[in-house]
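Friendly challenge for the regulars: who can give me the structure tokens for this chain first? No prize, just bragging rights.
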Amino acid sequence: MTIGIIEDDTLLHQALKTALQNAGYQTVSAYTKQEALTTITGSESLLLIDIGLPDGNGLACYKKIREKAEIPAIFLTARDEEEDIVEAFDAGADDYLVKPVALAVLLKHVEAVLRR
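First reply, four minutes later:
Bragging rights claimed.
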């Protein structure tokens, strides 16, 4: 299974990539909205998406990706306001985690979403 990581924080991105690969997943990386729109093919099993990307909103990015493929998504963001969480679920999010989150906990959320 391949998981797309759309996260601009280089250190967090690398930690996510390493944890997912150590858990047996393949990964595809994007650091910006534009990179995600060209890198994500639609064949991914799951996306991990930050809302605050340097060139746009992760929610808008996900909506655009969903035009070509129905891919489950976990939003992983520092935004903890109710309206951000509701907007993510309205956009089709399968889960929403507020940073910081322990990698072991994140992996359990990934497993849960992939089991659906």
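DSSP finds five helices and seven strands in the chain. The CA atoms of residues 7 and 13 lie 6 Å apart. Your move, everyone else.
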